[in-house]
């Protein structure tokens, strides 16, 4: 039931949604970054492939133009027949300028791969002759497929005038397989990185929100403890007030002790809850200072109700370094546990001993198996009518003081709880933590 309640908690649902939003934001940022990077890489590779193709076309066209020469005012093309520049792709065409008309094709490379319209070839040749330099453009062949055109002019040997142009026809699909392979690799790699980013973002957002989850769990636990612990004293006080209100005369005086005991119980519960919340939430560090442990235990024993059993004290002078407020809560809880479960009828049955940094509380109750101590300190699972909150708080206070809580069987019956704190450190000339000086009462 508790688990299902936690799952349905609005605060938990909000934290879960926040974690999912953080994961989505982290993933979206990664996707946008990878998409931009991939676009730049693909665009750069496409331009590099285009530039490489045009460079090859220009090389071939320039070689073809250099092999054209004039002899007796007649064009000679014999050097083009066996040269590698005119074989294969890009395809080379040579056009000569005629005085009475446009350029005429006088040479065509042996590998005719593209059926480009003559008008497109003539237009490129005219552009190169007019510009007297290389020109390039895109076109389409008769089947509608794109081709690349580049023209380089050549000159008459006798007059040094533009005599024609060598036109190279290139294939835009050259190197496309490698380009598509690059695109596929980028898509697969970007997808894998996106998935990895989503998982990483989910893990990192979960870790970053761990303090929020812990704070929420501590709050829920504190509220559960408060509801469980305060229910009984509030019910007692309400019942006593209702009975007194319905009784004639001075019946209220008869119920005042019961109401007072319930109020004292509520005060103890509130103090325990505040101490527990302080330790679990770590709102401040434990401020240790030199402390007379025997005097503190004596004061706590003196605060026990006069109507209850009075403990027999065996106090040795003891100095330790601890947080006085927390140690007071721990000792009070041990005494309350002994009075409640120890069935003490006189002071001889309840013995409190201070020896060094240890506080011993012995009772004549049913006794406790030391192996069951962890069970006794579980919230809401302590046998004998207790909640386990008091002992779990004692154990936590012992841990923050570098100590521990143990239990052993008392000779003759009963149990002895031993609260051990860290011994005082000898530091002459200075006080630990900036606390007040140690006061020894006579």
List keywords for this structure.
442 residues; alpha+beta; five-stranded antiparallel β-sheet; 14 strands; 50% helix; 17% strand
Number of helices: 10
Order of adjacent strands in the largest pleated sheet? 4-3-7-6-5
Give the DSSP E fraction (strand runs of 2 or more residues).
Answer: 15-25%
Q: Quaternary state, please?
A: single chain
Radius of gyration: 48 Å
Which structural class fits the helix and strand makeup?
Answer: alpha+beta
**Approximately how much helix is present in the residues?**
40-55%
Termini separation: 56 Å
Overall geometric form: rod-shaped
Report the order of strands and helices. HHEEEEHEEEHHHEHEEHEEHHEE
- Mean pLDDT, rounded to whole units? 78
Which spans of ≥5 residues are poorly predicted at pLDDT below 50?
A: 1-7, 380-387, 427-442
Outline the biggest β-sheet.
5 strands, antiparallel
Number of strands: 14
In brief, what are we looking at here?
The protein is an alpha+beta fold. It is 50% helix and 17% strand.
Task: Describe this entry's structure for a reader.
The chain is an alpha+beta fold. It contains ten helices and 14 strands. The strands form four sheets. It has a five-stranded antiparallel beta sheet, with helices on both faces. A hairpin with a 2-residue loop joins β1 (69-71) and β2. The longest helix has 58 residues, at 10-67. The protein is rod-shaped.
Blueprint of the fold:
Elements: H1 2-8, H2 10-67, E1 69-71, E2 74-76, E3 91-96, E4 104-108, H3 118-131, E5 135-140, E6 146-155, E7 162-170, H4 176-208, H5 210-245, H6 251-281, E8 289-292, H7 293-302, E9 312-315, E10 319-322, H8 324-341, E11 351-355, E12 358-362, H9 373-376, H10 389-400, E13 404-409, E14 415-420
Parallel strand pairs: 9-11
Antiparallel strand pairs: 1-2, 3-4, 3-7, 5-6, 6-7, 8-10, 11-12, 12-14, 13-14
Helix pairs in contact: 2-4, 5-6, 6-10, 7-8, 8-10
């Amino acid at each position: 039931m508790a688990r299902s309640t936690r799952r349905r908690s609005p605060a938990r649902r909000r934290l879960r949604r926040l974690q999912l939003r953080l994961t989505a934001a982290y993933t979206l940022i990664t996707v946008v970054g990878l998409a931009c990077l991939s676009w730049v890489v693909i665009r750069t590779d496409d331009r590099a492939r285009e530039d490489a193709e045009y460079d090859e076309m220009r090389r071939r066209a320039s070689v073809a133009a250099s092999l054209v020469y004039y002899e007796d005012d007649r064009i000679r093309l014999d050097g083009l027949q066996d040269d590698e520049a005119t074989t294969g792709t890009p395809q080379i065409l040579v056009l000569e300028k005629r005085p009475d008309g446009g350029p005429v094709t006088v040479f065509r490379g042996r590998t005719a791969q593209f059926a480009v319209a003559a008008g497109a070839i003539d237009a490129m040749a005219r552009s190169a002759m007019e510009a007297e330099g290389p020109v390039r453009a895109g076109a389409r062949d008769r089947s509608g497929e794109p081709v690349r055109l580049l023209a380089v002019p050549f000159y008459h040997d006798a007059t040094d005038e533009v005599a024609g142009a060598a036109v190279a026809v290139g294939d835009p699909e050259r190197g496309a397989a490698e380009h598509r392979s690059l695109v596929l690799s980028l898509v697969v790699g970007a997808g894998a990185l996106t998935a990895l980013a989503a998982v990483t973002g989910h893990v990192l957002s979960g870790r970053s929100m761990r303090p929020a989850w812990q704070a929420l769990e501590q709050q829920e636990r504190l509220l559960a403890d408060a509801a469980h612990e305060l229910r009984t004293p509030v019910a007692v006080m309400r019942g006593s007030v209702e009975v007194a209100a319905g009784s004639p005369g001075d019946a209220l005086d008869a119920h005042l002790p019961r109401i007072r005991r319930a109020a004292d119980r509520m005060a103890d519960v509130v103090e325990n809850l505040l101490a527990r919340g302080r330790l679990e939430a770590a709102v401040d560090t434990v401020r240790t200072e030199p402390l007379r442990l025997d005097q503190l235990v004596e004061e706590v024993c003196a605060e026990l109700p006069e109507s209850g059993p009075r403990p027999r004290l065996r106090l040795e002078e003891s100095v330790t370094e601890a947080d006085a407020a927390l140690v007071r809560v721990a000792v009070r809880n041990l005494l309350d546990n002994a009075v409640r479960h120890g069935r003490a009828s006189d002071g001889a049955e309840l013995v409190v001993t201070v020896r060094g940094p240890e506080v011993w509380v012995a009772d004549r109750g049913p006794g406790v198996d030391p192996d069951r101590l962890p069970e006794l300190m579980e919230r809401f699972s302590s046998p004998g009518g207790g909640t386990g909150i008091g002992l779990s708080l004692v154990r936590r206070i012992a841990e923050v003081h570098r100590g521990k809580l143990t239990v052993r069987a008392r000779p003759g019956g009963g149990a002895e709880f031993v609260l051990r704190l860290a011994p005082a450190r000898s530091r002459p000339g200075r006080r630990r933590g900036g606390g007040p000086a140690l006061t020894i009462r006579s």
